[in-house]
# Entry
Amino acid sequence: MVGNRTVGEVMTGEVVQARPDTSVRELARLLTVHRISGLPVVDDDDKVVGVVSQTDLTRRQAAAPGGAVLGPRRMLRALRRTAGRGPAAAPRTAGGLMTSPAVTVHPEQRVVDAARLMERRRIGRLPVVDEEDRLIGITTRRDLLRVFLRSDEEILADVARALRAGSPAAPAVSVEVGDGVVTLAGSPPSGADTAAWVRAAWQVDGVIGVMSRLTAGRTGRGGPAGGAVPAGYLSGGHGG
# Structure
């Protein structure tokens, strides 16, 4: 069952990593050779002290004289050429470039909770650490999403069913699901407990995020906010 799977079951044990004194040139090489978008930075005790991503490297390149916004591959090639020749203020090592403190997880944590943490913090990878915060693995958004075998259509049906169960009047609220992220939109009647609807959506197996675009002050069967085309209406035929 999805809800019982743990991070330790899906993580990668062999981790490409850097030290605080790893050069920008070497960081670019590691990301390019291993075809990854980020890596953890560890100290001499293998404790995670930060994370460096392609975004961090892009910011450095953009800050360089004449720096232009480049695609990931061109950016990494440019970094290899210019590392060490940039302005004195530009970070030249992982320690100066990394995002710190790093967001980490433990192997016994549920996959569902790790996926939701990624969605909330808008990150694509989570270093996995032991009880002493030493690096033992890494898990990515793709690793976690592989566990969610349920389709968006199945999630949509269960979310709509859960919301109808808590709202017999079936207000005009639409439900969209994309890659496990639920979006609630529309104009519920005055006094509707929309917070309860958000909580109900979170409880559905396979959901990794919930966005509320519910607007108050109008009743009836108006369409969803922002003119989006709904994937299913609670009062419609979706969700069984």
User: Anything to note?
Assistant: The first strand starts at residue 38 and ends at 42. The CA atoms of residues 185 and 213 lie 5 Å apart. The beta strands are 38-42, 48-53, 125-129, 135-140, 173-178, 181-186, 209-214, 232-233.
